[in-house]
Structures are given as structure tokens and as C-alpha cells.
Amino acid sequence: MPRIDAFLKLGSAQGCSDVHLAVGVPPMLRMNGDLMPIRFRNLGDSELESYVTEILTTSQVEHFRGGHDLDFSYVSEDGGRFRVNVFRKDTGVGAVFRAIPSSVPTLASLNLPPIVTKLLDHHQGMILVTGATGTGKSTTLAAMINELNQTRRLNIISLEDPIEFVHRSKEAQIIQRELDTHLPSFAEGVRAAMREDPDVILVGEMRDADTIRMAMTAAETGHLVLGTLHTTSAVKTIDRIIDALPIEEREQTKSFLSQSLIAVVTQILVKRADSRSRKAICEVMVVNRAIGKLIQTDQTHQVPAQLQTGRELGMQLMDQALLAGIQAKELDPDDAYNYATDRKLFQRFVTDTSQLPKLDLASG
């Protein structure tokens, strides 16, 4: 058994989301958003590199020693599945193992807003799930694919980096392809997928102009495209897509967003009231005629007002979702306060009042 499996087994037993290994510190577990060291000696450079190379293929070792980071999925001997990133830093090797649940989640189990399920009724267009790293975007997308897999006879092509949740075809046929293993880039993956009779294309990350351009083409030509961006609001998502493409394509991009973008679901993970786990909290923008016009006329700064008043369409601002979670006693109000945009609305719920003076003084 690879020695690294002992740390992964401990992390899984503790219910952590990530296992961090770095030179000069003991192994650490990400527990409900916080890093916690385990009782172990500080890791040495050669020691940690030997741990890591035990689970790498020959080509991965060569790639890593050539100065490149590695992203791959790993299945430990006891069956635990992890998304892995291996890198070098100033003191030596580092690695992060993200635990992947053994079963594919359902939308119901994630307690996402009902509108997320309804969005999947669309047969073409683009749905984006956005948020910072580690906010559960991949989990939400996996649940969306799972919903389609159980309810519709579709050809679903999922392009991932790396493959995380493993889907078994049920009503739908699901083809999972991994970056660098099965395809050279997301853009090439989308281009190839469009020749494979797809109904749904999942793009693991729309990270460059070519990928965004190809995903837009797929959405405009009769396919349902699911994708992610590392943006933290609906407005920032719109702006990121427009800014990612050349100026001469700007009008065409705004036209696409106003006509073919179905929705943006932005999520964060907030500690529950009992602090034992975290809950996904979502901002939801559903593109209607009013929002489409704001995009076309460069008035995206007015989009939040549409979200605030668009509850009948399933829309909500992040602050609205946070307040609802606090009032339902589902969320830790102190953690929710840290994620709020208009923090004054949340001050009366805060229990750790030491947070308040610093922020009040700064805002004054």
C-alpha cells in the first residue's frame, strides 16, 4: 500500500474535504473550511517526494520533474477517490488531495434552490455554475448530470480536469473524457464533442478565450452546455466572459449572453448553525428579457436589482440567501456575516461581536 494512503484514510475517517501535504509542516486536514494539523512530524522534502512518486505513473514523474504541476485523479487501495494537485514551491514538494464522495450526489441531497432542477428542462443554451475554488462547483455539476442521467434519454459528454465523480449510464449515455488523458484542451474537447451527436456538453472549466468561444458555439447550435468559471457573482461572470474575448467580438458576445445564457448559479460554502458541516448557498441569475437588455446596453451594474426582485423566477442575491439561512437557523451567523456583501444587514445576528468594531471603523 502506498504510504500516502495512511494520511488519506485518516482524512476520510475524519470527514475532511481535503488533505494537504507540504514540506516543513505536518499533514493537514481541511475540516469544515478550517485547516487542522494532524499529530505527525514535519514532512521533509525527500520524504514527501518519495510519498508522492509512489502513486505516479512513469510519464507523470517525468512531467513533474520537468517542472510542471500535476492534476489527476487517484483511487487509494481502500477505494477512496481523490482529485490531486502536485506542485513545487520554495521549500519543496506540495500536494493537495480533494476527497470525492463514492456516490454521485443528488440535487435534493445538496439542498440547492428548486430553480436549479428546473433549469435542466432547457434543451439548449448555457448554464454556468461559478464560485471560488473549493466551493463545490464540481459537486453541483455532478448532481445536475445525475439528474439528467436519471430522467432523460440523452447523450451527455463531460469534459473534466480530472475526472472526479464517476457516472454510470442510466437513462442517458454519459461519456467522460479527461484533460491530457483523452483530450489536449477543453476547446478541442468541445470541438470534438460537437461531432459526437451530443445533447449535453459539460465543460469542466471555461478557462480561456478558445474554450469560451467553442462553448458559446455549442450552446448556439442546439446543445445544452454546462460550465464553470472562477467568478464570485453573476455580474462578474458576465464581465469575465465579455473581457475574455477580443474587442472586435464584444458585440457578438453580448448578443450571445443576452439570448443563449440561461442562468448563472454562484455558490459559496457556509458553516451550518452546528458548525459540524457546511451548506451551499447560491446566488441565482436567470436571464430574462430585462437582464438581456442590461447586458446588451452595458448596464450590468443594474443586474443585482433584477435579482433582488426576481424571486418569482427563482432569482436571488447572495445576501438574500444568507439572510434566509440565518433566519431559518440553518447557518452560523458569524460565518454568514463574513460572506455578506452588505454587512450592515447582518450585524444584528452576529454572536462574535469582536468582528464588528474593526469592520465598522474600516467602513467609516
Task: Write up what this structure looks like.
By secondary structure, the chain is an alpha/beta fold. It has helices spanning about 5-15, 45-55, 60-65, 105-110, 115-120, 135-150, 185-195, 210-220, 235-245, 250-260, 290-295, 305-310, 320-325, 335-340, 355-364; strands at about 20, 30, 35, 70-75, 80-90, 90-100, 125-130, 155-160, 175-180, 200-205, 225-230, 260-270, 280-285. The strands form 2 sheets. Strands 9-8-10-11-7-12-13 form a 7-stranded mixed sheet, sandwiched between helices. A hairpin with a 2-residue loop joins strand 2 (about 30) and strand 3. The longest helix has 15 residues, at about 135-150. It is globular. The protein starts with a helix and ends with a helix.
Question: Notable features of this structure?
Answer:
single chain; 364 residues; seven-stranded mixed sheet; six-stranded antiparallel sheet; globular; disordered C terminus
Describe how the helices and strands are arranged.
Layout: H1 4-14, E1 18-22, E2 28-31, E3 34-37, H2 45-53, H3 58-65, E4 70-75, E5 81-89, E6 92-100, H4 107-110, H5 114-119, E7 125-130, H6 137-151, E8 155-160, E9 173-178, H7 186-193, E10 200-203, H8 209-220, E11 224-229, H9 234-244, H10 250-260, E12 261-271, E13 278-286, H11 289-296, H12 303-308, H13 318-327, H14 333-339, H15 355-363
Parallel strand pairs: 7-11, 7-12, 8-9, 8-10, 10-11
Antiparallel strand pairs: 1-2, 1-6, 2-3, 4-5, 5-6, 12-13
Helix pairs in contact: 7-8, 9-10, 10-11, 13-14
